[in-house]
Amino acid sequence: MKALLVGEYREGKLLDSIYELLAFAGKLGAEPVVVLVGDAANVPRCDGSVYLADVATYGEYNPDLHKQLLLAVIHKEKPDYIVFSHSSYGWDLAPRVAARLKAAQVSEIMGLVEGGLEVGSCNGKMRRIVKPVTATAVFTIQAGAFAAQGEPQGSPTVLTLEIAGAGKVQFQGYEPVEAKDVDLAKADIIVSAGRGVGKKDNIPIIAALAKALGGELGASRPVVDAGWVNHSHQVGTTGQVVSPKLYMACGISGAIQHLAGMKKADFIVAINKDRDAPIGEVADVLIVADLLQFVPALTAKLR
Amino acid sequence: MRLLVCIKQVPDMESRFKVNSSGDWYADADLAYRMNEYDEYAVEQAVLLREQLGAAADLTVLSMGPDRVVEAIKKALAMGCDRGVHIQDPLVHQKDPWQVASAIASFARDKKFDLIFTGMQSQDRGSAQVGVTVAELLEFACATTLVNFSYADGTITGKRELEGGVKGVVRLPLPALVTCQLGLNVPRYPTLPNIMKAKKKEITSLAVADLLKEEALAATTSFYPPVKKGGGVVLEGDPADLVVKLIDILKDKNLVRR
Predict the structure, then answer these.
(1) CA A58 to CA A60: how far, in whole Å?
(2) What is the CA radius of gyration of chain B?
(3) Right CATH for B2-211 from 3.40.50.1980, 2.60.40.1120, 3.40.50.620, 3.10.180.10
(4) Nearest residue to B10 via CA among A78, A210, A121, A170
(5) Out of B26, B123, B169, closest to residue A173 by CB
(6) How many whole angstroms from its chain centre is CA B43?
(7) What structural domains and CATH numbers belong to chain A?
(8) How far apart are CA B41 and CA B147, in angstroms?
(9) Could you report the predicted ipTM of this complex, rounded to two decimals?
(10) Chain A residues lying within 8 Å of B242, measured CB to CB
(11) Which end of chain B is more exposed for a tag (fewer CB within 10 A), N or C?
């Protein structure tokens, strides 16, 4: 069996997610072949072959052209699996390749089980086993689900990859992160507000608890999208990744993107009306309560 | 300009999910359904563009599924779509993303759409495949995960949300398909007059068998709740008692002053 692993290159750097792809190939028991649009100074440390297309020619984001590059390698290597990270690059590119090959795609794989691939469902509240029925399959793997073992090592054989072609989508450049008014990465205690707080007027209730505990206010994505709290407070893959001593999640159901941003906290307390909320999976203590009753009572007791 | 927005109806994610009798999806009973959250942003963006273009535009909303999905179509019509298309399929949950995309592409192929909007993924299945696959099947330019959208002179300028809060700015020519991320805009609530007006808008019903000729490429073999990991304590009861219990735990961990 052979797995073609699609690495990512962003703002001049090879992303470490390539080592998760290599770990996944190991779990599959497949021979890895890496393909990457990058540069020769930044190839992964691994054995085997790395197909390298020059980023100066093909760009960091040019999905139509990157698809054609991958199809050229797939034609030559005939892999059983084509594996991407489930990232803004991977979920954008994988279905294009799968459609061209008419291959099954399984998205955001979190585990390998007897008879198929385990993926999340219903905002993380449920799980599904998916089984491809095509000879070749395209996979995207969940960030962090297949951790690299030990220090990466090896020096691959680098093969130059070139094609002629053009893409429809034009990449204009990156827009940097907005300036932060709080650095959550330095906070020992974070109390975060989620959609369960109900409305903007209730944010001060959560902020008051953060203050009483000597911590900072955090927030989940829906609260930031709704404009209740500004983006610098957002915890999760598109906000900040934090590891405080205490993380209190108030009215946060626990979407995978949020969990990825806070599950390394030393101690996690979740306050939620729904005892089945996925946040319960990472919480050390789950308080099943109406936060609008519970949080003010807790704050009063702490003062 | 011909616009299409594709939406899915999904259960409220606060629901308690039960496994169905065949063990491969949730049981339909006792669930409250709503429009997939990502698709609300797609509808809103399509309606905003429809308003920007005025009489030069026509906006179709499409949904695939059992009869209940007509409710989601009606909501989109009340938000400002011009006409609805219902691809009738009581067994849509057994179709894989390839089949759903194939049915949509088969409908769209001869309609000369210039621009298609979809959510970036559904909340229940979360495959993030259908939109991109439709674009591939129709050979449209495509960009995913937009948190900003503008259109002028035949060109779309969008901002894709990348990891860590960084955004990637992209330009696309027409015809194009874009998938919409949460926070792209502020989806409107349909007003009562618009709900009344929507009742007069046409909804065309099509049988899935007339559009879909493709077999599934992947199968869901089981569906189940995750195994609860040990270690976590669940506390329930009177809020005042819970406050005392939690403070004791936090003191024990040296997380609050004694």
Answers:
(1) 7
(2) 21
(3) 3.40.50.620
(4) A121
(5) B169
(6) 9
(7) 2-160 (3.40.50.620), 184-302 (3.40.50.1220)
(8) 10
(9) 0.93
(10) 287, 289, 294
(11) C
